[in-house]
Design a protein that fits this description.
The structure is a homodimer of 282-residue chains.
Chain A: E1 2-6, H1 10-22, E2 27-31, H2 35-43, E3 49-50, E4 61-64, H3 68-81, E5 87-90, H4 96-101, E6 111-116, E7 137-141, H5 148-160, E8 164-168, H6 170-198, H7 202-208, H8 211-217, H9 224-233, H10 235-257, H11 261-271, H12 274-281
Helix pairs in contact in A: 6-10
């Protein structure tokens, strides 16, 4: 079985590692627009061989793990070129636009829209991790539009990798993910910005920032190249979440200004309920 | 040597564990306003014996690890009562007000104002951790106002616990800590609130929230009883940081609304510089 991974970053690379491990007879073909990353992926054994996009017909499984704007461009063309029995899986963080673009594609049944909820703030082939997807959620959208046999094939792979499957429609996916992922990234980027602007004297940050700060700004290390197109595609939902977040912050600030500390206590007490939610994630 | 720890939560409890370990001849006396916590601290061996506040004269070292509003009330009285050669150390997250309150206290030289930058989002004696302070920064304020011999005594303890010492004036401490700690907590509490408000159907949060969300809302689990008085004491600085944070978020939202994605890319690229800062913290 030839598996062709297009985009050998954190997600593509981690999928390549795990597929190699669980499907020992699979040949991992790889492509990355960044020649240096492609070389790195070959040298570190993420893939068995470099390939070019016009070899895509040789693969039984094609995984597209590129920024979501690039996806929209290349997936329709790739679908045109793949074998009639092949399966193309995308793993992008937004699902509405890709599903829309492919709606009437003659090979729509060869495509499966997924979003594995896994990752770190790092990027590139060196960021790839073995076992990254174990016990992680993988959201599948519009499963009914994929050929039954190819659904089965995908689920067999996801199951071997330890993924937990959830089905969702693309609109709901994008609306919800704006809250639990995209907003977190923006809050973190802007927190990083706020502190960097203030603390011109870096030494003071080094000295006073503890694990709490580190935890809240971790995502500010994320790749702008990956996140800009995600924000673009999920613009409407993200603006809504940002509005609500800003309102809550303004409200908190007003309570501070009016010295309404019993109210502030209550606000925090209510937010504490996130404990139960987080315990559920574990 | 009798060491009296007042407030047996995460910080007080962790200090008790480490002092026991490094000073085997020390007798750990403990008090907590919460009778249940006091019992727990004794049973789990954080302290050797329960004590009441009017036994404070028996101790050579007194560590006060209570919410910062309670500190302001009890530290002046405790100082009145301690032995002339004893050292009282506070470990609160705000330093300006306690230093101000004690400015003209006849036993000011028996007091050392510190802020160990260590902790987790948990609280109470069960949250106490061995080695919590190892390689962590401990900020000392107005060191020159503490008797030389007592400074030495404190530094000997901090050094055994692996702490790295930084000296700062209380005003600068409170201004800086607003950025790298207090703001992180508010951003996290309000992020938790925003998502909780939206996602009435909890199941969806469980399913879609990954490690990124978890990292940014971790601090929303923190104790409101501990944090409300910190926010109260550091009100002016916190309002300033909140204003800047909200402005940055509003600016980001405006860029989204105007579809200025190259600008958004640039914003994130600049915030990426936090990577170097965080590498410095490690």
């Amino acid at each position: 079985m030839n598996v062709f991974v297009i985009g050998l970053g954190l997600i593509g690379g981690s999928l390549a590692i795990d597929i190699q491990q669980h499907f020992t007879s699979a040949t991992l073909m790889g492509f990355d627009a960044n020649e240096h990353h492609l070389k790195e992926a070959l040298e570190t054994g993420l893939i068995h061989q470099k390939a070019s996009l016009d070899e895509v017909h040789k693969a039984a499984i094609i995984i597209v793990a590129v920024p979501v704007d690039v996806q929209l461009e290349i997936i329709p063309q790739l679908l045109d070129a793949i074998d009639d029995d092949a399966l193309l899986i995308d793993v992008g963080s937004t699902k509405e636009q890709i599903c829309k673009v492919l709606k009437n594609h003659p090979k729509r049944r060869n495509f499966l829209a997924t979003h594995p909820i896994a990752g770190t703030e790092f990027s590139g082939p060196n960021a790839a991790l073995k076992g990254l997807f174990n016990e992680k959620i993988n959201i599948i959208c519009e499963v009914e539009k994929t050929a039954f046999k190819l659904q089965e094939k995908a689920l067999a792979i996801f199951s071997k990798l330890g993924m937990v499957i959830r089905y969702m429609d693309p609109k709901a996916h994008d609306r919800h993910i704006a809250y639990v992922s995209h907003l977190s990234h923006i809050s973190s980027f802007m927190l990083g910005k706020t502190v960097l602007e203030k603390e011109k004297n870096e030494r003071d940050i080094f000295d006073m920032a503890g694990s709490g700060f580190e935890s809240t700004v971790r995502l500010a290390k994320s790749s702008p190249a990956m996140w800009t197109p995600i924000f673009e595609q999920n613009k409407t939902n993200i603006i809504e979440t940002l509005e609500e977040y800003i309102l809550n912050l303004q409200n908190f600030k007003a309570l501070m200004e009016e010295s309404k500390f019993p109210e502030i206590f209550k606000e925090m007490k209510q937010a504490n309920y996130i404990k139960q939610i987080l315990n559920g994630i574990k």
